[in-house]
Each structure stands twice: as structure tokens, then as C-alpha cells.
Amino acid sequence: MFERFTKDARAVVEGAVTHSGRVGARTVEEEHMLLALLDREGTRGSFALTSLGETGFRESLERDLAEARRRGGLSRADADALSGLGIDLSEIVSRVEEAHGEGVLEPGGRGGDGRRGRRRPFGQEAKDVLVRALRIATARRDRHIGDEHLLLAITLRGGVAAEVLADHGVTYESVTRVLYGGTGAGAGAGGENGVAEAG
């Protein structure tokens, strides 16, 4: 599958590994892919994010992602569901952090397992994003998988990264509109040639 990735999409995957290592996570997750997308400039994915994002977009996204990590990777929808059962997630997080230290609930775990110099494996969420990106590119009849397909896959997948993006107006529909001028798979503005030229 990676032979179909543009250089921009490969750079996002490599950047996700770097972000994962920077925070000491055991695996590369969807959040790391989003952060790597935010690092890119001059690509179709970065164009969509820049077009839809407001001033301070990156900082706000990073804050929201950090808050979700602090909740153990649970989305606000998960927190709301627990609240409906009478469980105050904020109170639980505070008590656990008082007893065991700040950030103890963050998913992916932190270092200490001797993986510092080795490649980190991709977690299931990140693998799902890669597979979904391939499906999106195939459905659009694009020959290559670009960073825009990774962004679209993150917005479609659901979960914390999609929730954080949606809070900032970045949804599958809005990204599709920016990139292709419509919502259908046959929208012509960014078809095969646009993706092939991106990488």
C-alpha cells in the first residue's frame, strides 16, 4: 500500500512516528497523524486545514487533544455517556491524577519499555486511518494516496481526533468542499491529476 502514497503522505506517516516518539508513546496513534498533518505546508491536506482553520487553530487543536489524552483518550461523547450514568469523568481523572500523577491515564503509555531506538508500531486507530485513506482514494479513483486522503480518513473515522477537528469546523464535508468543490466522489477539481501532482 505504501508505494501508492505520495511523498507528502509518507511525510505525514513519518511525522506521526516522530510525534509518537516525542511524547514517549508506545504506539503511533491517530492523534500523532493529525499532528503530523498540521506540520505540513504547501500540500493539499495543509491547504484544506488552513482554509478551514481560524487564527490559533493549531494551538487550540493541540490543547483539545491534550485534554482528551488527560481523559484517557475518551471523547466528549464518551464523557457525556458516562455522565448520563451518574459518573463524573473529570472527578475520576482528578482523583486518579492526585494519587498517581498527572497524565497517568494517557493512552499509549509512556516510555520505559526500551523502545527508544526502535520503530514504534501503529496502533489500531492509526491503521484504520491508513486503510480508510486507501478506500477514499480508490472511491475517488485517485491513483495515489495523498495527505488529503489521510485528513479525510481522520474526519470520517470518528473518535477524539475527528471530534476535535469538528469542533473547529473541519469535517469530512467541509474538507471535501474545499478540496473538490462538492461532496460527491465524482467532483472533478481534485481528481486523479490533482492527487498525482501533490506528491
From TrEMBL:
Entry-linked InterPro entries: Clp_N_dom_sf, Clp_R_N
Keyword terms: Repeat
UniProt-annotated stretches for the region Disordered: 100-122
Annotated Clp R domain residues: 2-185
SUPFAM superfamilies, alphabetized: Double Clp-N motif
Any one Pfam family match given in the protein's UniProt record, by short name: Clp_N
Keyword presence, Repeat: yes
Alphabetized Gene3D superfamilies for the sequence: Clp, N-terminal domain
Keyword Lipoprotein assigned: no
Protein name: Peptidase
Taxon lineage: Bacteria, Bacillati, Actinomycetota, Actinomycetes, Kitasatosporales
